[in-house]
Amino acid sequence: xxxxxxxxxxxxxxxxxxxxxxxxxxxxxxxxxxxxxxxxxxxxxxxxxxxxxxxxxxxxxxxxxxxxxxxxxxxxxxxxxxxxxxxxxxxxxxxxxxxxxxxxxxxxxxxxxxxxxxxxx
Amino acid sequence: xxxxxxxxxxxxxxxxxxxxxxxxxxxxxxxxxxxxxxxxxxxxxxxxxxxxxxxxxxxxxxxxxxxxxxxxxxxxxxxxxxxxxxxxxxxxxxxxxxxxxxxxxxxxxxxxxxxxxxxxxxxxxxxxxxxxxxxxxxxxxxxxxxxxxxxxxxxxxxxxxxxxxxxxxxxxxxxxxxxxxxxxxxxxxxxxxxxxxxxxxxxxxxxxxxxxxxxxxxxxxxxxxxxxxxxxxxxxxxxxxxxxxxxxxxxxxxxxxxxxxxxxxxxxxxxxxxxxxxxxxxxxxxxxxxxxxxxxxxxxxxxxxxxxxxxxxxxxxxxxxxxxxxxxxxxxxxxxxxxxxxxxxxxxxxxxxxxxxxxxxxxxxxxxxxxxxxxxxxxxxxxxxxxxxxxxxxxxxxxxxxxxxxxxxxxxxxxxxxxxxxxxxxxxxxxxxxxxxxxxxxxxxxxxxxxxxxxxxxxxxxxxxx
Lengths: 121, 466
Known about the structure:
The complex is a heterodimer. By secondary structure, chain A is α+β, with helices and mostly antiparallel strands. Chain A has two helices and four strands; from the N terminus they run αββαββ. Chain A has helices spanning 2-18, 49-71, and strands spanning 30-36, 42-48, 84-90, 107-115. The termini of chain A are far apart. By secondary structure, chain B is of the alpha+beta class. Chain B has a 16-stranded mixed sheet that branches. In chain B, α5 crosses α6 and α7 (272-293) crosses α8 (343-359). The longest helix of chain B is centred in the first third of the chain and has 27 residues, at 52-78. Classes of the chains: A alpha+beta, B alpha+beta. Chains A and B meet through α1, β1, β2, α2 and β4 of A and α1, α3, β1 and β2 of B. β1 (30-36) of chain A pairs parallel with β2 of chain B.
């Protein structure tokens, strides 16, 4: 009887905590993303704010450094001058059951320019 | 022993239930139905009123989620390092600056159920948020871009930009880049026929656009026109909504310049009817936008500076506002510019122009292949409409609804309020990165109301805040 009570109690405890909508801890904030569900229709995915910030800032920083380094080497030609370059970066999580579920691949566009009159596409 | 087991159970519940209740609070709110479901698309055909209590609750939850989304990105961008900017010597243009990260764009989308979030798939964004460093924004804000335009996210569309004073002789040179791009794609087999059709289309539209006389003392004026077309493999050019599949999409744009001289009068009288009709539409929308944009509810740190309105054409050749992108042949781009280019030349003809536009109480809304429920809705709610069928090989049905101007003004005011919900959020002023621009996409209802475009939906109106 004692053994069954313990088992029942553990199951109840696990069920209650695993019924979170996300795999986040209760104190971790969530972010809504619009991705693709398994049936192919758009649906909302909730991800960890903390992990998203970490991934976005890391990816964005490396893209910024390499883009500016590469663009600064472009030469001025008599007829054409490159004025803007748009990079789309994607942040994904593929390892384990992570916070980013299938179909969630946040994309942010970076606009680099060498003009004060930039038009954002 | 039994008492000790009961105690353990009680302890487990005491720990588990609070955690579960905390988890239950972590949920994402929905956008209120009235923000994105148009009246004619709701299940009941009757126009329903909003439920203030439930809407207020939705808005509060929505505001918290949105603020969290913005704060997350602001925090992430603050962590970007300051790259070393290379300064080089040479013969560079006046507006040149070292290569730098100018803006970061994120798109927010809306599902059919009203759930919103950062988009991770292709589709129509309901709201695009553009981030920029404060120091960069201060430099770019110093000059009002009178020729600025709002480009769509579909930057892959080959676009030919024609200047506002282009003459026939210069059209060919100005469309050459788009011709070369299309031929290089390999999708058009008869390139000479395509060139001939492209030149004829561009010349005709150029004559129509240039002959428009739109004097106005309003802050809002049509700063640009955009027309989208499809090019088939045989080089034929057709309106975009007549897609069969496999065609290449091209775009022709006109940017209007300041004009201190009297307007150019078309030598082609066959354009006279189209010109007057388009002019009337332009002036009607001008007064509608100005009335809607001056309401106190649109005040805030970001202001409406541009509006792109979908342009449709009836089978009889008349112009109106397009409902959804499937009815759109192009766009009118209205900009706000205190330095109105036509102001000095306009006043004497303004009174006459205003009388003409005020006489038209309604603005036509054009919908190609209208669904049955839209027609039923129009009948039930006594909305004046007319069904037409074209006589071309590929037949299609078209509904033209007549929308009273004051209803469109109310719809725009509502849309401005909705858009400002996303554009004017409290932010940390000590952060380097701030929201500099917001663009919101809407579709127009038969009642004159506007609703956010969903991720799989279409839009006809785009508002640009800065």
